Amino acid sequence: MTTSSPTSQALDQALAQMLDAFSASNPASRECFDIHARYLPGANSRSVLFYAPFPLTMARGEGAVLWDLDGHRYDDFIAEYTAGVYGHSAPEIRAAVIEAMEGGINLTGHNLREGRLAQLICERFAQIERVRFTNSGTEANLMAITAALHFTGRRRIVVFSGGYHGGVLGFGAQPAPTTVPFDFLVLPYNDETAARAAFAREGPDIAAVLVEPMLGASGCIPGRPAFLQALRTLATDAGALLIVDEVMTSRLAPHGLAAQHGIRPDLTTLGKYIGGGMPFGAFGGRADIMALFDPRSGPLAHSGTFNNNVVTMAAGHAGLSRLFPPEAAAALAARGAALRDRLNGRCAAAGVALQFTGIGSVMNAHFAAGEIRRPEDLAAVDARLRQLLFFHLLAQGIYASPRGFIVLSLPLDDDAIARLEQAVGDFLARFAALLPRRTMP
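and the corresponding structure tokens:
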């Protein structure tokens, strides 16, 4: 029989105290959860939003601030998992949506707004010569895969462990149970040698490589430039397509992360913030591939009642053109990089094995020392530490993700960022005895 260590017992006790305080402070959210659980499994339609003992129910938002049902105020450092780059109440977005609705919500035809947004996207992302809209990044990736299968006449899709390309396209060492049954070959992320071996072995059967230039849902793990460049070369040499999933990462650089690495994909998928806070996805790329979907001559149909809905088209155009042009993306990325450096400096000074990985305006906290190249490097991390950080930040009025995901949005001010830094500093001081120590080489 084994017993836990004194440190482990103290961690359990500290976490139990945090959970008790959370439950006592949020009776309205608890009641709402119990009521909604009668009609929704786990009171939930998005698994990522659940955490035990029950999630907060948000009542309203303004700028980069949220208020829950119990009246608590939070600085919003999740920003709808990167989709909320404009915050909760940008006047430009609101005005564009109202104007669009006044002209008719469902026009049942081509409309002026879809062409305007398509032009803006193609001009912003040079690798996208033609584009089609969907309602989510999930749909965009499904359609990009479908295009690759038909264009190449092959069946196998290379993906990477830890990759998340939508609700039905998630991967660990194997596809998740909810993943659609394409013929996937799952390889380790950031492993150029494994990729070369796979192409040497199966190159003639590979239709496409689908890759995030930074793993998002698996912890903001950047793709190494040599790895991403190797995928471009391997796909080209094998006659396969390179699909870069920029649903999350297109906001991290003026023209997307692939362009920042000097990589030109054959197909690119987009989503999240580009819809201005409305449901949105897009896939696009080389004109000859996208011609598959041209109803005048192409063999593939692509439908969707709300693909070109005027509300999303209007909000997306207003956001990209007025609030988030390339220079704004660069500025937000620089602001995030500076914050990440300061947070990592605090962790290093405290001698704690806690680091914040990421690129630009998104990052993730990890209780691990050394370089993190793939999700498997985090397998030994104690999940209780993530919980402790999450509930500590909530108690300090900081709304981050239970997995340690932190996202900046345009309306976040310097005071909010200072409060986050102070909250992390307080965490390091308060729980120093419970945190893993940074070992010196």
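(Above: one complete record from the training split.) The first strand starts at residue 58 and ends at 62.
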